[in-house]
Amino acid sequence: MRTEWMNQEAPVRPEGGISRRGFMKAGAALGGGLVLGFFIPTAGRFARAAGAAPAPSAPNAFLHIAPDNTVTVMVNRLEFGQGVHTALPMLMAEELDADWSQVRGELAPAGDAFKDPLMGMQMTGGSGSVAHSFTQYREIGARARAMLVAAAAQKWNVQPAQCKTANGVVFGPAGQKASYGELADAAMAQPVPATVTLKDPKDFRFIGKPMKRIDARAKSNGRQQFGLDFKPENCKVALVARPPVFGARVARVDAAKALAIKGVRAVVEVPTDRGGRGVAVIADGYWPAKLGRDALAIDWDTSAVAKTDTAKLMQEYASLAKTPGTVAKKADIAPLAGAPKKISAVYEFPYLAHAPMEPLNCVVDLRADHCTVWAGTQFQTADQAAVAATAGLKPEQVTVNTMMAGGGFGRRAVPTSDYIVEAVGVAKAWRAAGHGEPVKVMWSREDDIKGGYYRPAYVHRADIGLDAKGNIVAWDHAIVGQSIITGTPFEPYMVKNGVDATSVEGMGEPYAVPMNLTVHNTKANVPVLWWRSVGSTHTAFVMETLIDEAAHLANMDPVAYRKKLMGPEHKRHLAALDLAVAKSGYGKKALPKGHAWGVALHESFNSVVAYVVEASLDKGAPKLHRVTAGVHCNLAVNPLTVEAQVQGAALMALGTTLPGAAITLKDGLVQQQNFNDYRVARMNEMPHVDVFIVPSAEPPTGMGEPGLPPLAPAFANALYRLTGKRLRKLPFDLTAA
Fold it and tell me: Which intervals hold domain Aldehyde oxidase/xanthine dehydrogenase a/b hammerhead (predicted)?
C-alpha cells in the first residue's frame, strides 16, 4: 500500500474496511450522546470456511461521546499486555480530533460488530489487532467527527466546511465553539456520511507519537480488575482435578474427605478436554476448593489413551527427519553431492508452555435460558459458540464479557475453547445438583503448566552445500513435528497439499537459497497450540544460525553475507538490519574482553526485526548483556508500545535458551509443574534492550510477536564466537554442543 492510499476517500471494501451501509446509530443509549456502531454485512474468510451464517444487522455501540465530553471507545480485542487498549482508541481519537484526556477504552463483549474485519471472527492473535483495524477505527472516528461538525454547522447556520475541530471542540467561522459533549445529542440526528477523507500522516497528532498507556495507572496501583479478580455476588469457586494423562477418565473417586472440609459445597464429575473426565470441587472460595481437591482419592483409567514419552518421541523424530516428507518447497539439490563445503545439522526444539502470569480462569452464570461468561479470551466468537453448544443454548443466548488478562501468548485462543467449555461443564453439573449460583473455575500455576496446549516439539535436519566461494548451491531440509492447524477452522486455507503453513513459515526467507523443504506432520497425545510467534519460534533459529555458519565457511562477515543473500529487493529487511548494526556499533566499537557480537534477523507477521547482541560467558554460563533492535513495522502507531513489545519478546525469547525451559513427558505424564522446574527468564537476567524503529508512513504491520524469533539465534551466534560450538537445540546446552 502506498502513502497516498491513507489520504483518499475511504472506499467500500468487502473485508478490509466498513462501508457506509455498515454504520448505524445505536439509538439513545448509555445516558444520551452520540453512539455510533456498525455491523459487518459479510463474514470474513475464516467464518465462511467454517460455514458460519452472515453476521446479523443489529447495531453495536463502538463509540460513545457522552454529554460530559467523555469519549468511550470499545476495544474489539483482548488486552493482555500488548497495548491495544491504548493503540485502538488512538486511531479513533486521531480522526475524531478528540481531547485525549477525555478518551477511555472499554473491552468489547462478544458481538458480530466487533469481529476482526479481515478474519470474520472476533479474536486477538496473529499480531493483527492494529494492522487489521487501522482503517476500521479511523473511519469510525472520521464519520463521528463529520456528524459532530454537521450538527454544529446546522446550529450556527453555516456550512460544515467553514467549521474546524480540535481537542474535542468544534469551532465556527465567527468564533463560535461547542464541545463534542454539547453537540453529541444533536449529532445523533445527522446522517452517517457516505464517505470520509482520512488524515494525511503528516497531520497526525496522536498516531506515530509516543503515548502513555490508558491502562498503565490502574495496573500500576493495583486497581485494574483482571479475570482472576472478578467474582460476582454469591459466586462459588471450583478447582478441577484433571486426568494426569491427556484424555484419561475417572475410574473411581472417593470424595468423603473433600466433602468434610469446611466451605466445600459439592464434588462432581465433569467432562474435560480431549474426551477426558475429571472431578470438580466447588466451594465458597479458592482455599477450601484447593484443600478439597487435594483430599480427593481418584483412580484414573488411562487404558484407552496413548502415553507420550518425549525422549522416545525425539528419537523417532530424528529418524523420520532422515526421510523425505511432504514437499513444501522444491529445488534441485543435485549439486549437494559434489559441493566442496558442507553443513550437516540436526536441531531439536522441546514442547513449551505458555505460562502467562495470570493462569486461566472463567466465571459462568448459567440460567435456564441464558448463560453469561466472564473470561480473558482471545477467541470471543469461537468461545461464544462453544458455550452455546455446551449449554444447549443458541449463541444469542450467550453473553461473553471480555476481561482484562495478565498475558496469554496464544493460550487464551484455543479452537476447542477448552478451559471455557470445561467451566460451563462445571456450571452445568452444579446446576444439575440443584444450585444456581455463578461458578468461577480457577487454574493454579500447576494446572497451567500441566494443563496442555503447548508449542509443539520439532526436529529439523539440514544438509547444505556451498561452492568454493561460499555460495550456497543446494539446501536439503526436513521438519518433523505436530501440526497446530489440522483439525481447526483454519485448516482449509492454512494446510495446503498436506503442509501446515505454520510449520514452515520463515524457511528460506528472505535469502536467495535453493531450498528443498519437506515436512512430516506427526501425531501425539499432547495438545498443541500456537505460541508467541508460532512457527517462527523454531524456523528463525534454524535459518539464522545456519546462515551464520555459512557465512563463517564463506569467510565473510555475517552481516555482509546476509545482505549478499538478500539483495536490494528486500528493502525492509535491509533497513532493519542496517539500523540495528549502526545503532549497536557493530564492527566499529571495541567490545570488552570475553564479549562477542551476534546477529540475526527475521520477518514474521509482516514485520522485520533485526538484532545485534552482545554476549559473554559468566563462569561458563551464557550471559546476554545488550540487545540492539532494528524494527520495520511500517507506521508505528504508538512507538512506546512497539518498544515494550520488543523488549518483552526479547526477554521471553531469552527464556527459551535457559536450562529447564522445556516441557517433557514420561509415560504420558508432564514432568514439570511450576516455575521451580519450568524455567522462564527473570528480572535479573534481563539484558539492556534498545529499540530503534525504521521511519515509515505505510499502514502498520504486526508487532506483538515479531520481536521474539531472532533473539535466540543472535545469542547462539555470539556464543559460537566465544566457544567455537554451534548450538543445535533449545534450551542451550554448551556441554552437548
Answer: 221-304
Q: Which residues pair with 240 in a beta bridge?
A: 280
Closest CA relative to residue 79, chosen from 320, 407, 458: 407
Under a CB-based contact definition with an 8 Å cutoff, are residues 469 and 356 in contact? no
Structure-block grid coordinates of residue 589? 566499537
Distance of alpha carbon 521 from alpha carbon 503, whole angstroms: 9
Residue 594 has a CB neighbour count (10 Å cut-off) of 11
> Is residue 544 exposed (0-12), middle (13-18) or buried (19+ Cβ within 10 Å)?
buried
Residues 224-247: tens digit of each pLDDT: 999 999 999 999 999 999 999 999
Task: Please report, to the nearest 10 degrees, the dihedral formed by the alpha carbons of residues 346, 350, 351, 352 taken in order.
Answer: -120
Q: What does the buried/exposed string (b/e) look like for 498-531 if buried means 16 or more CB atoms within 10 Å of the residue's CB?
A: ebbbbbbbbbbbbbebbbbbbbbbbebebbbbbb
Q: Rounded CA gap, 336 and 340, in Å?
A: 9
DSSP string of 149-201? HHHHHHHHTS-GGG-EEETTEEE-TTS-EEEHHHHHHHHTTSPPPS--BPPPG
DSSP 8-state assignment for residue 602: E
* Cα 624 to Cα 55, 74, 541, 731, distances in angstroms: 50, 40, 16, 14
Q: How far is CA 277 from the centre of its chain?
A: 29
Q: Is the separation of the CB atoms in 339 and 474 below 8 Å?
A: yes
Nearest Cα to Cα of residue 244 among 286, 311, 307, 292: 307
- Cross-strand pairs, 308: none
CA distance 275 to 540: 35
Nearest to 652 by CA among 692, 621, 679, 616: 679
240, 280 Cβ separation under 8 angstroms: yes
Assigned C-alpha cell, 246: 491427556
Rounded to whole angstroms, the Cα distance separating 407 from 80 reads 5
pLDDT for 159 equals: 98
Kindly give, in sequence order, each residue whose CB lies less than 8 Å from that of residue 170, ignoring residues fewer than 6 positions away: 148, 149, 152, 163, 164, 177, 178, 179, 180, 183
Which helix (DSSP H) or strand (DSSP E) does residue 626 occupy? strand 621-632
Contact 651, 638 (CB under 8 A): no
Grid cell at residue 657: 535458551
| 436 φ, ψ (degrees, to nearest 5) | -130, 0
Say if CB 67 and CB 181 are below 8 A apart.
yes
pLDDT digits (tens, 9 = 90+) for 421-459: 999 999 999 999 999 999 999 999 999 999 999 999 999
Task: Please list, in sequence order, all residues whose beta carbon lies within 8 angstroms of the beta carbon of residue 380, skipping any fewer than 6 positions away.
Answer: 78, 109, 110, 111, 114, 122, 123, 400, 402
Q: In this structure, are residues 149 and 173 in contact, taking their beta carbons and an 8 Å threshold?
A: no
| Contact partners, residue 399, CB within 8 Å, separation at least 6 | 109, 110, 370, 371, 372, 373
CB 84 within 8 A of CB 214: no
pLDDT grade, residue 28 (50/70/90)?
Answer: very low
What is the pLDDT of the chain when averaged over all its residues?
92
Residue 643 DSSP code: H
**Helices 129-156, 180-187: crossing angle, 10 deg rounding:** 90
Render pLDDT for 268-278 as a digit per residue (tens, 0 to 9): 999 999 999 99
> Rounded distance, CA 428 to CA 311, Å?
40
Query: Treating both helix axes as pointing N-terminal to C-terminal, what angle do 84-96 and 129-156 enclose, rounded to 10 degrees?
Result: 30
Q: Is it true that the peptide bond before 510 is cis, omega within 30 degrees of 0?
A: yes
